[in-house]
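>> received
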Amino acid sequence: MTQDLKALQEKFVQDLFVSEGLGAVIEEADYGYAKCSMEIQPRHCNALGIPMGGTMFTLADFAFAVAANQRGRDVVTQASQITFLKSAQGKRLIATARQVKDGKRVCFYEVKVTDDLGTEVAFVTINGYVVRDNGEGKKEAAG
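>> returned
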């Protein structure tokens, strides 16, 4: 049985860097899938007035964490790659993580970051390393 959205929100609000620092929230989640968002504030922007790359990466990494850390698994980022595509035009950033491969010790995700106007701003790939799996089982990725 997958964790419900409220339980995931309660778990990940403890990630203070993301919940308080970015103001990120979990909108949707299932095993192997998560959609997280944040309002763009001046503190998230660089000298050009656009969201800093680190802001977009942190939101993407958070969406990966929510998608991967379910069903009794503890997963950390092993390696990642981000490509910035375009400056955000809207007022919110949305990161959607989808599982591509679910292995016993290593998993692979892609995360698309858009703004609320639909502008694709970044694409991230993440290799995750499973540090603990209590055997609740894995299923085919959502989405």
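>> The mean pLDDT is 89.
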